[in-house]
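Illustration: NADH-quinone oxidoreductase subunit J.
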Amino acid sequence: MNGDMIAFFLLALCAITGGVMMISTTNVVHMVVSLIFTFLAVAGIYVTLSAEFVAGVQVLIYSGAITIIMLFGIMLTRHEREEEERTPVLRKVLTGGAILVFFFILYGKIKDLNFPQGDAELHVDNTKKIGIELYSNYVIPFELMSVLLLVALIGAVILAKKDEKEEGGGKK
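Result:
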């Protein structure tokens, strides 16, 4: 087991921990912090795979912009605090055991996996290679995705305006 594999497993454990924390906490701000933790761990995994550009995009876009948008959305909406019943200890222990079994099964399968040794210069100029592929072979899907995101943004604004009108009309 070399250093890259140890780094991968530590970062994967951080990503899984962040994901589990996100779905198990009830405070919305704690959920967003757990999500940031997961995004940063995934960016670290990209670095170990020699995909520095993708790791940078992961940090800038997901950990930064999307998380800030989520926090603004959370803070601008109303949330009712609800008391939640406690999870039984036996259920937590069984869940943890199932996660450990799943981890060791995956570890055994990944350890036995043999990838063919491909291009040794895969990490050289990977940003340039991504740009060439994106804007030559995948320019139509790239543009369609931008139009789809624009339509989703316009739809969200229209739905938010419609909710404001409904709330304002009922109070008069």
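Reading the tokens back as a structure: The chain has a mean pLDDT of 81.
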